[in-house]
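Backbone geometry:
***
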Amino acid sequence: MSARTIPRTSAKKARTPQQRTLPLMDAMIVYVGDHDASGRGISDRLEAQFAQHACDLIVARVALNPDQISDYRLPTRPGKTTDSQHARFAAEYGEASVEVDALPPDVLTEIVRDQIVAQIDEPAWLTAGEAERLERQSLADFTANLSALGIDPRN
């Protein structure tokens, strides 16, 4: 199964001078939408719309994609010809549309989970987990010391 990632849009030129002093952070939107003109239009425009607000991000459209429609033999329906984006969609993908609801919930959950897990830096995750464990232990020790001195740590 492949996820279509829309190319990253730089927000640097859209940022105000005050915003330019703030660091840009990588962010990702995991997008799930219908395979139709409107669903495709949303995912295709998200990065540009966020860039207008000085938000640099990546949009990963993880469902529904043509390969998932064929892999899972999802039911199709004719596209809405009244949709202003229909002609562009039909030229690229054909006339058939598919609702994301046609994908079994457990499959959709797995697709989204896989995309999120793939973004995790495991060494950094483990380091952060160890730091949190040490902080909790330090707080527990501190609380125990206060109690040993007759000080109620809740006050």
